[in-house]
Amino acid sequence: MNDTITVTGLTKRFGDVVAVDDLTFSIGRGTVAGFLGANGAGKTTTLRALLGLITPTSGTTAINGTPYRELAAPSRTVGALLDSAGHHPGRTARDHLRGLAIATGVAPARVDDVLAEVGLSHAARRRVGGYSLGMRQRLGLAGALLGDPEILVLDEPANGLDPEGIAWLRSFVRDFADSGRTVLISSHVLTEVAQTVDQVVIIRQGRLVAHKPIEAGENLERTFFQLTGDLG
Ligand SMILES: Nc1ncnc2c1ncn2[C@@H]1O[C@H](COP(=O)(O)OP(=O)(O)OP(=O)(O)O)[C@@H](O)[C@H]1O
């Protein structure tokens, strides 16, 4: 089986709100898939279900064919950046990552590697409370990379990054996929991901609108407006 990420008939309700509505898609190995939809479309809810953080109302999700909660080595299989919160402001980036490494069974020696990978070596000994939002996003990505995973799930990773940071993120994601690994990257801003992705999964009000490869020379903006009417 070549699919790394599968979402099958996923529905999630919060009271009267249907956040995700019978969503089905799968992502093959070695690709960068953009997961697009307006604010509130259901992207984060889908990713949280995929990572076993919430229980679906119905439907299933799997990573390499296995539900996340049943993975034998989750941090080596999939790394996730869901939000940039959750860092203790008084700790240094290095200490934060060391704690995370120990908690997830990763050799602490990886910490300096991932700090270098995300361009934070120079700030490794600074307290995270003084980090900019963009630096916290990089730190979150470093945490996702600790287990040297084959799959990355990134929820709005460009939030808070300056143009240089966004360009860096694009090339980072591209290199990651070119080494045969897989990235699912959510965004509500089309232009952030348009130059990076091989395919797009577009949702609106929790439902699948389109899942298609990106054609060379395609005017993505026009395609998206036609499909969704509400994506920037
Ligand atoms: N824990 C929750 N309790 C109640 N409603 C929720 C909860 N989480 C999400 N929702 C609702 O579900 C819908 C989908 O939210 P979700 O965060 O998945 O969208 P999103 O596409 O990630 O949006 P954004 O781009 O703004 O992050 C929204 O209407 C949201 O208000």
Automatic annotation (TrEMBL):
Residue ranges occupied by any ABC transporter domain in the UniProt entry: 5-230
Record Gene3D superfamilies: P-loop containing nucleotide triphosphate hydrolases
Signal peptide: none
Pfam families: ABC_tran
Keyword RNA-binding tagged: no
Keyword Transmembrane: no
Keywords: ATP-binding, Nucleotide-binding, Transport
One Gene Ontology term of the molecular function aspect: ATP hydrolysis activity
Family: Belongs to the ABC transporter superfamily.
UniProt protein name: ATP-binding cassette domain-containing protein
Organism: Lolliginicoccus lacisalsi
